[in-house]
Amino acid sequence: MKFFIDTANLAQIKEAQELGVLDGVTTNPSLMAKEGITGRNNILKHYVDICNIVDGDVSAEVISTDLKGMIKEGEELAELHEQIVVKVPMIKDGIKAIKYFSDKGIRTNCTLVFSCGQALLAAKAGASYVSPFIGRLDDISTDGLNLISEIRHIYDNYEFQTQILAASIRHTMHVIDCAKIGADVMTGPLSAIEGLLKHPLTDSGLAKFLEDYQKGN
Ligand code: E4P
């Protein structure tokens, strides 16, 4: 399972990269705004800065919602760095854009996916990644993990190469459950990655080992 971090915060991306388990980064316009990154040039520069920190794919989202605009923006983003994956929303023109990019060898991440039908369309169009938002489904009392299972089943039926990128991860159990189901990738906050480290028996066991070592020395 690949681990992506879902942030535009350079310090957190560095921290995850230094842990040695990071495979990529996802961003979105809200995450960029949260870091105060505004204006086209600053945004493009920030994507390059992220690419220079992480060894792996970096999703950069288009803002346009029409085919022509998405193609123009996506080509500009893809030109920025070889690690860039163009993130395209799950709308009608988005599907057309994914097909266009796929035919041109530009990698895509189809975002804002909330149903199996949407995931099937994204795969048919040739998306490199599909991003079902499990946390946002859970927020409205709908089982986000069930969507990951159903997409896994459908993709395996037809051997679609589109990778399932479980997005909107909120906590460590989302990560573990997605791994059990067989999601190809998860993207979440640093806390969900670092939370996997924690166990009280590890802490107490280590404290005892160190205490016993001190007694004998
Ligand atoms: C996916 O790529 C999105 O950036 C993200 O996972 C959305 O998560 P949220 O629901 O926590 O905003």
UniProtKB/TrEMBL annotation:
Gene Ontology terms: biological process: carbohydrate metabolic process; ketone catabolic process; pentose-phosphate shunt
Which one of the record's GO molecular function terms can you name? Answer: aldehyde-lyase activity
Quick one: which pathway? Carbohydrate degradation; pentose phosphate pathway; D-glyceraldehyde 3-phosphate and beta-D-fructose 6-phosphate from D-ribose 5-phosphate and D-xylulose 5-phosphate (non-oxidative stage): step 2/3
Cytoplasm is among the record's keywords: yes
Q: Where in the cell is it found?
A: Cytoplasm
Substrates-to-products reaction catalysed: D-sedoheptulose 7-phosphate + D-glyceraldehyde 3-phosphate = D-erythrose 4-phosphate + beta-D-fructose 6-phosphate
Active-site residues, record numbering mapped to chain: 87
GO CC aspect terms? cytoplasm
Query: What sort of enzyme, by top EC class, is this?
Result: transferase
- Identify the EC number(s): 2.2.1.2
Per UniProt, the keywords (alphabetical) are: Cytoplasm, Pentose shunt, Schiff base, Transferase
The protein's job, in short, is:
Transaldolase is important for the balance of metabolites in the pentose-phosphate pathway.
Q: Which family does it belong to?
A: Belongs to the transaldolase family. Type 3B subfamily.
Protein name per its UniProtKB record: Probable transaldolase
Q: What is the name of the gene encoding this protein?
A: tal
